[in-house]
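Appendix C reproduces, verbatim, an entry submitted by the partner laboratory led by Prof. M.T., so that reviewers can inspect both the input and the predicted structure.
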Amino acid sequence: MKGRHWFDYSPTSNSSWVWRTICKVKDKVKAGFMNDVWCANQGQYTVASGYAWLQGDQVKVDWWHLIWNRLNLPKYSFIGWLMIQGRLYTKDRMMRFGVISDGLCEICRTQMEDHQHPFYSCDFSVRCWTLLRDWLGVPLPATDILTWCSVSRCRSLLKKQLVYAAVVALIYHIWMARNVCREEHKVPAPGYIINEIMRYIQNLYRSRDELSRYKLCIVL
């Protein structure tokens, strides 16, 4: 590379895989430098500014605090993200793909399973939401989690994080209950699911350093 400009450099064919990979990253970010000065963050490169630049302009959504809450288990966030994007393989989608012919909800067997039904209108999920709402002592989404995310308010950041963690956990457990019913023809009791979530939230709560300064509206 002696005497050559970094951004004009290309690795030789016998270069190591690591070096070729570094050069590929260089090719991706070189458009972000103008006159050898990083075009974002007042000319100083940081990983955060580089990542934001590569992402480009993004639409900010109201639900990102809910799904990517740092107290969520990753598997809870993943299923919650698929649910909020309408990407779960509910029966209406599988029917459109020609995979199945029976579109009735596996649990209640009374309504067609679209993307809203398992989480809001099925008697099973309604009972789960009611139990969780009564335990947390806060309003929870009745029909639309997106609207709820935009209007939900908690005075304490910790309380909001714990409530969000409980909501995403319930979405996960409802979806898992639906899958268990589909495969094993049995449904866990709503009370059992809420007890699991209670233990999960209690463990999160007790692990925090703010125990002496804050109380949830729940019995711990």
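The chain is about 50% helix and 0% strand. Additional entries are available on request from the coordinating office.
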